[in-house]
Amino acid sequence: MSPQAPKPPAPNPTPDRRFAKDVAKHLDRRRMRRRLFGWTLVLGAIALAASYLTCGQGFGLGGKGPGKGEGSGPGSGPIEALISTDDAGPRRCQIRVAAGGIAVDGKPATVDEALAACKGVTAAEVLVTGGAREGDWEDLKTAFDRAGIQILRVEPKGGSAGSAGSANSADSAGSAGSAAP
Known about the structure:
The protein is an alpha/beta fold. Among the domains are: 17-60; 92-172, no CATH class. It has helices spanning 17-54, 79-82, 111-117, 134-147, 161-164, 167-172; strands spanning 92-98, 101-104, 107-109, 123-128, 150-154. It has a five-stranded mixed β-sheet, with helices on one face.
């Protein structure tokens, strides 16, 4: 038998240097992205903490209390100066015509007293109940029309639509068709 001759070792394949460089670049880029993401998170947390500490009372500048001194800005005067009645909307008086008579803002009155009480307003809210005298309502309506005061007819709460009627139909309808409460 012949002794087998040892085989020469197979040569190691030489590593591709370009491939190794590409892998190293990708690993380096990954490491840089992780670092950038980590620092972004840390700086974001610091910014949130600073915002919470300085703007914790709202989105102001962090002060507590009204400050010191009198001030001279638009909000530094007395509270009455801040309340404006210019834009409060149209002024109205409230009139109730019921079986007991006419009431202006909850106080009993005659047609002339109701007209005098509502003289300086732009409109009058009139509530005519089912038991009201038709003559009281007609007298009041005529006096207000002559004075140029607009009448806004208010429907009673909780009443059925058939007993109260609409604003247009109640003006011309008689009291025979309406039910007393």
